[in-house]
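pls design
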């Protein structure tokens, strides 16, 4: 929820950030979104390699602090020459986070509850977007648009410090129950094997 609030706050002031803080024209400020989209496409191509090298949790922490860093850069250096590459890096980090966080959530959820857990996640995530937009508007009006990025980046950095140890801890084994005498293969992150009892994903 903290991530969603922070992102919603910056999204709410994006147009003002581009046109007022950066001095871009109405036709030019969408270049920030283009840069973000390019970063997301690069993340889609590289996230598998990052996950295999950094073992999931490590890659997620790099992505989380990457998002925080780019927001802080946008707040400290409100210039077009800094904003466009920063948005591209934010797209790279954000795309990586989205893929790995969804994978981690599904891997840690019992198979029969994936639908309910995913629905609850979306209710919370979408439900706090208006709150984040409201906070971004209030901060921008009182302390200026760049302050929204500074505070949002700081929130995400604090979140990263709080969850750092738990995300780097080993993934718990996921256990399934199979009918007696049946062997199951395939599954999340590997294959399941065994007979007449608990199956352990490896």
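designed seq:
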């Amino acid at each position: 929820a903290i991530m969603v609030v922070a992102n919603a706050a910056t999204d709410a002031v994006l147009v003002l950030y581009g046109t007022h803080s950066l001095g871009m024209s109405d036709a030019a400020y969408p270049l920030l979104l283009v840069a973000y989209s390019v970063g997301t496409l690069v993340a889609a191509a590289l996230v598998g390699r990052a996950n295999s090298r950094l073992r999931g949790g490590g890659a997620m922490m790099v992505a989380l602090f990457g998002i925080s860093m780019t927001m802080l850069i946008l707040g400290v250096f409100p210039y077009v020459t800094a904003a466009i590459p920063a948005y591209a890096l934010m797209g790279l980090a954000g795309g990586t986070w989205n893929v790995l966080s969804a994978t981690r959530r599904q891997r840690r959820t019992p198979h029969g509850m994936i639908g309910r857990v995913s629905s609850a996640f979306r209710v919370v995530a979408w439900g706090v977007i208006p709150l984040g937009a409201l906070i971004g508007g209030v901060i921008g009006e009182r302390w200026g648009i760049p302050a929204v990025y500074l505070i949002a980046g700081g929130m995400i950095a604090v979140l990263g410090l709080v969850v750092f140890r738990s995300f780097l801890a080993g993934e718990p084994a996921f256990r399934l129950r199979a009918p007696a005498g049946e062997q199951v293969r395939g599954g999340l992150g590997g294959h399941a094997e065994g007979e007449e009892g608990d199956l352990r994903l490896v």
